[in-house]
Amino acid sequence: MTLLVISPDYASHLLPLATLATAWHDAGERVVVATGTATAPIVAGFGFERVDLPLGRGANAGVMRTKEQDAAEAASLDRFFAATHEGMVPTLAYQAGERLTDLMWQPVDRARATLEVIDRVAPDAILVDHLAFSARLALHTAGIDYGDVVLGHPSALPVAGEVYGYPPAWPRAFDPRPDDLADLHRLCLEVSEAFALQWNSAARVLDSASVDVDDAFAVHGERVLYNYPRLLLGADERMLPRHVLLGSTTRDEPADADLEAFLRDETPFVYVSFGSFLSVRGDVLARVATAIRRTGMRAAIATGSTPAAALGDLPAGWLVREYLPQVRLLEHAAVAVTHGGNNSVTEAVGQGVPMLVLPFSTDQFAGAAAIERVGAGLALAPNTATSGEIEEAVAALADPGWPGRTALEIEAAAQAERPGPVLAYATLSSGPVATASSAVQLPAG
């Protein structure tokens, strides 16, 4: 049996998808990953095969640096980073405007390339990142069954009454003006309509009999797999399509002498990461570092594209690197400070760790709101939160009596008993999966 994984060339997307694929690998089955060249080392590290399938103009092997992108992508990233300094609405508005180029990149060409990969690999099952729109366009028009993996907050797949890119909720720390929200909603609606036209036009080139869709952002596969914890979904009243909740995709990570020495010290520590993109916000990371110093706790900080020197004087006993093994550290952390990205949130919940979320963009606001509602953590506005406010939040979350800690521990135990890869394997092994040229029956698993 062969599993094909289709992912954009971004480490933050590939890591959870590749982790899901370990269930097939552990069962002795073949795993092939279709992605770009930047993440080839990640594919090799998992022991999978790789076929080349770039799905966007950008790429990210773990830490996003504009100088490593082509000119258009670098300029787009610089404008995005600048927008994050202006706040929630300007950032979301900028992202909405970029959506027609970064989510549907060369749709006809990439769709045809996707079908060529499927014919060459002849998979028995397919897992696709929901945001790989050009690839899913190919699968949709060809009538090929696949597992549609939605990373991050479930609003990445809008449901009735929602517009993609407009948060269904945001944390209490954000109080946008009603007029600004109305303008943002109109913009997101215009982009959604234009995106549907783009999808439908490309679909008709691929298949002249293709039926137009009203909202291409809402198109999904028959098998929707949310990489999201049940605990956080309990705060969500949105009407989701039939789905499977994977919880998180906890992966094995290598250790080293410095990491092991850090973990042997049982003094509580705070894990800090703003992911591969938002680590560029060194000003906020520096405030977080100052706040943690004031608590007297230790810290493990993944600095990403921010130089460690920008964080100020770092106490002895702290672990500060460009990149850190997140899952391994979260297993022992007392608190996580995060931008609210998919991997940080799901992996923290999977380890029962309360979070301080400082959201900057996309679905991070809705995710932070859910975390706040169920008591899994707190949320602050990254541009305005003082080091004193961050210190107070970290200290509250580190208290063993934090009210949400019990619910987090119950969720973590449930995920350990039924891990995401196991659920994904069972879901895709439960019925027929059409390939580009045939339909086959997967065994029960």
TrEMBL record:
It holds the Pfam family UDPGT. InterPro entries: Glycosyltransferase_28, UDP_glucos_trans. CDD domains: GT1_Gtf-like (cd03784). Gene3D superfamilies: Glycogen Phosphorylase B (3.40.50.2000). This is Glycosyltransferase.
